[in-house]
């Protein structure tokens, strides 16, 4: 009987304890990734890279007048990857018509597509390559939404650089790029990131 008071105290304390709110589920953004080393070798565009480096002009007007077709690749790059469009592919890519390529160039050439900061990293997840009728790469563009910028080779001189430190994609620019990726059946960018409109840390963390 001497333990009864202690039991009653613990019982009523437990009854009055408020239920703990379940932890918010952490949303993991879609990131393209290579499944195994064999796949990385299978998709490695070694010959394309060599051909491109041997014939690439110092500058070019996009799209190159010799463009015969264009392919889009998803890339697996979690570090600095200067030639990710050739070395970090996770698939064989998909062909898009020239008009789709021109839609991308139109977004990149629109001054309203820029206005935010960029991250110092560059981990591209989307690569676009234009080829001639001999299947030789003429020019490429890779895009990193996480870093909020893109790179190209040859250098895309048409890009309207705005004020210093604000040449990252704007909200509208990111929205347009995501819509374009979606039309290509690419999932990358469907979740909100730090550079997206209305993003909050609580979108990802409890």
Architecture blueprint of SSEs:
Elements: H1 4-16, H2 37-42, H3 46-55, E1 69-74, H4 84-87, E2 94-96, H5 98-108, E3 114-116, E4 126-131, E5 137-144, E6 149-153, E7 168-169, H6 171-183
Antiparallel strand pairs: 1-2, 1-4, 3-7, 4-5, 5-6
Task: Please state the oligomeric state of the protein chains shown.
Answer: single chain
Q: How are the strands of the largest sheet arranged?
A: 2-1-4-5-6
Which spans have pLDDT < 50 for at least 5 consecutive residues? Answer: 6-29
Mean pLDDT: 78
Q: Could you describe the largest sheet, including whether it forms a barrel?
A: 5 strands, antiparallel
Count of discrete alpha- or pi-helical segments spanning 4 or more residues: 6
Structural class: alpha+beta
Order of helices and strands: HHHEHEHEEEEEH
Q: Residue share in helices?
A: 25-40%
Report the portion of residues in β strands.
Answer: 15-25%
Number of domains: 1
User: What is the overall silhouette?
Assistant: globular
For the secondary structure, the number of strands is 7
Q: What are the main properties of this structure?
A:
two-stranded antiparallel ribbon, 206 residues, alpha+beta, 16% strand
Q: Can you describe this structure?
A:
This protein is of the alpha+beta class and 206 residues long. The protein has one domain. It is 28% helix and 16% strand. The protein has six helices and seven strands. The strands form two sheets. The chain has a five-stranded antiparallel sheet. A two-stranded antiparallel ribbon has the order 3-7. The longest helix has 13 residues, at 4-16.
């Amino acid at each position: 009987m001497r333990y009864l008071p202690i039991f009653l105290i613990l019982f009523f304390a437990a009854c009055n304890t408020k239920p703990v709110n379940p932890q918010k589920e952490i949303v993991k953004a879609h990131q393209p990734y290579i499944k195994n080393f064999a796949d990385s070798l299978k998709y490695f565009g070694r010959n394309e890279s060599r051909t491109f480096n041997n014939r690439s002009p110092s500058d070019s007007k996009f799209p190159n007048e010799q463009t015969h077709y264009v392919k889009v690749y998803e890339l697996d790059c979690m570090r600095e990857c200067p030639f990710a469009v050739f070395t970090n592919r996770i698939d064989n890519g998909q062909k898009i018509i020239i008009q789709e390529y021109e839609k991308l160039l139109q977004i990149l050439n629109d001054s309203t597509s820029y206005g935010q900061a960029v991250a110092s990293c560059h981990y591209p997840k989307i690569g676009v390559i234009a080829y001639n009728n001999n299947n030789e790469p003429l020019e490429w563009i890779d895009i990193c939404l996480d870093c909020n910028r893109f790179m190209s080779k040859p250098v895309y001189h048409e890009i309207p650089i705005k004020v210093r430190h604000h040449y990252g994609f704007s909200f509208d620019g990111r929205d347009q790029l995501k819509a374009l990726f979606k039309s290509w059946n690419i999932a990358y960018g469907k979740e909100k990131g730090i550079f997206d409109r209305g993003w909050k840390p609580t979108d990802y963390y409890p």
